[in-house]
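In the design runs reported in the main text, the only information available to the sequence generator was the tokenized backbone. The following block is the verbatim input for one such run; it is reproduced so that readers can re-run the procedure and compare outputs position by position.
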């Protein structure tokens, strides 16, 4: 079961590409805090200094005393969170100055409804607070001089007694561009992976082109899917590049369409990968030349349904990134994910998708076990080794996935929570997004190598051996009704593979041959001389014809075809000197 969830995480990590977004986020009264990592210009480089700016778009209620907005704002580095706020009489940490805290003497009346930052504290980076009173930027900015995990929080006092909502855009501008700092390594890593895909594809297409006239349909599937994966990875890399250079918020329609398009490609990659694994585990192409039509259609329908739910899951991931996640740094704001009100949509998409995946996963494992057992009982040693390599490949990929989980766990739980967050944000997207992509590349490349076109792969697919038991016999043309199979396999007629009859020979010739073989003294079945060109039989036939013509007394018009050139020339000269001789 753990392996199943591990593989589930491996496949759906690819959909994380749909969550790529520029570092311009939106804060509201329901989602009033946000944290993200940022690199300094010295550590990563770039044309400009990194900074954080805000833009107040709207607010509900104004301050009755001033008639303007009164939204408190704070920006700090996460290491300094313990230096913020005060501890009340009940032992709770409070970050917003309230009337209760004023009465207890923990803050002043001038700080009412503002973030509490005590004087004379030592911080890792500067802590900046402000009160936004007007729409727009309010001339507020925060320069990032140190690499770290920076947080912003906002609070709008509830003057009317309820939630005083507001809408604010925050720009986390890095020196290198608009990608989140945790995702900037993916820009170069996906570019490198695209190059590796392209090189491996060129190497793989060489044997495909060499054996193009004898490819199995499964090998055509793998070759075409290899091309698709290479193109998809190049497009994924280009998406990160487009996002890094995008300076508009919200995202332009073209960029949003590109994100949706890449998400659909990722969903198709996952579903078609399951389809390939499923038909291979069922023995398609190598163990059995065809699968029953009903079984093949059921595989296609199951994977198609999985594809539809995967597209919905990708849309869900993209939608949730457009709303702001909960990253609570205070306990005064009622921050929550704006998607929580639609949590039923999450269940409606995620639960069926997980059930379909688990069903396909266990179907693949059970089919792989059954196919391996059948090959072992039928003593199909070569094919058995292929499936054993496939199982080792899948098992090894899961071990690599577990290794990534262990590494991430060590990073998170090796120290206190604050230090773990400070380290983990740099490797989070690499471990959860790029590492599964590398594992997927290894698995698919391994499958393509195992089922690569060779000089014997075509004959290997057609070969059968005598089974040890009739119940586990691999079906042949004589034991299976071929009408239940599709017509997409390379062998158009399996019966011709098990028969010595020439399919182009007429029925009469076949009957003559059959009657001739009934003669025990007939030598027609003997092997022919491979160096015999038939010239000796032709000479004997010409001699017999010449003897017949001589016996009939008509030898003037007969000439052997193998006369010398000199005789032909002499005869031609006689004809020119006496043209009437021929007529006489």
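Verbatim output:
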């Amino acid at each position: 079961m753990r392996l199943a969830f591990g593989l589930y995480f491996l496949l759906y990590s690819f959909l994380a590409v749909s969550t790529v977004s520029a570092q311009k986020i939106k804060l509201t009264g329901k989602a009033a805090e946000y944290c993200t990592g940022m690199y300094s210009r010295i550590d990563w480089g770039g044309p400009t200094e990194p900074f954080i700016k805000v833009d107040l778009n709207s607010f509900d209620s104004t301050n009755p005393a001033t008639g303007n907005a009164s939204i408190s704002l704070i920006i700090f580095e996460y290491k300094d969170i313990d230096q913020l706020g005060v501890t009340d009489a009940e032992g709770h940490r409070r970050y917003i100055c309230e009337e209760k805290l004023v009465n207890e003497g923990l803050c002043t009346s001038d700080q009412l409804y503002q973030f509490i930052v005590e004087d004379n504290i030592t911080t890792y980076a500067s802590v900046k607070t402000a009160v936004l009173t007007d729409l727009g930027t309010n001339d507020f900015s925060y320069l990032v001089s140190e690499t770290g995990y920076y947080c912003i929080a906002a609070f709008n006092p509830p003057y009317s007694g309820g939630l005083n909502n507001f809408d604010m855009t925050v720009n986390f501008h890095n020196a290198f561009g608009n990608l989140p700092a945790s995702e900037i390594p993916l820009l170069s890593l996906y570019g490198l992976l695209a190059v590796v895909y392209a090189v491996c594809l060129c190497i793989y297409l060489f044997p495909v082109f060499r054996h193009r006239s004898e490819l199995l349909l499964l090998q055509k599937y793998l070759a075409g899917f290899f091309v698709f994966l290479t193109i998809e990875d190049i497009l994924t890399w280009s998406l990160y590049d487009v996002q890094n250079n995008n300076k508009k918020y919200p995202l332009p329609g073209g960029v949003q369409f590109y994100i949706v398009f890449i998400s659909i490609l990722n969903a198709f990659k996952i579903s078609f990968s399951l389809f390939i694994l499923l038909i291979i585990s069922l023995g398609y192409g190598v163990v059995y030349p065809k699968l029953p039509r009903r079984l093949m259609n059921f595989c296609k329908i199951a994977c198609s349904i999985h594809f539809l739910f995967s597209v919905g899951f990708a849309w869900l991931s993209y939608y949730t990134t457009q709303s702001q996640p909960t990253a609570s740094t205070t306990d005064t704001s009622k921050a929550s994910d704006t998607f929580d009100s639609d949590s039923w949509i999450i269940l409606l998409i995620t639960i069926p998708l997980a059930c379909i995946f688990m069903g396909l996963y266990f179907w693949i494992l059970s089919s792989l076990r059954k196919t391996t057992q059948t090959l072992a009982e039928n003593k199909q040693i070569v094919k058995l080794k292929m499936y054993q390599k496939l199982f080792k490949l899948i098992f090894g990929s899961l071990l690599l996935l577990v290794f990534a989980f262990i590494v991430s766990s060590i990073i998170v739980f090796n120290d206190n929570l604050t230090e773990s967050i400070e380290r983990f944000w740099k490797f989070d997207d690499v471990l959860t997004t790029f590492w599964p992509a590398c594992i997927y590349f290894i698995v698919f490349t391994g499958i393509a190598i195992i089922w690569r076109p060779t000089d014997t792969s075509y004959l290997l697919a057609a070969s059968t051996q005598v089974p040890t038991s009739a119940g586990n016999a691999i079906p042949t043309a004589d034991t299976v009704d071929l009408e239940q199979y599709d017509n997409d396999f390379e062998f158009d007629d399996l019966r011709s593979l098990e028969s010595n009859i020439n399919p182009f020979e007429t029925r009469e010739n076949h009957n003559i041959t059959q009657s001739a073989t009934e003669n025990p003294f007939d030598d027609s079945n003997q092997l022919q001389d491979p160096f015999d060109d038939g010239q000796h039989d032709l000479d004997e036939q010409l001699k017999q014809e010449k003897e017949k013509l001589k016996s009939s007394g008509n030898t003037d018009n007969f000439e052997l075809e193998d006369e010398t050139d000199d005789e032909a020339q002499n005869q031609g000269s006689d004809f020119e000197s006496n043209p009437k001789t021929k007529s006489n």
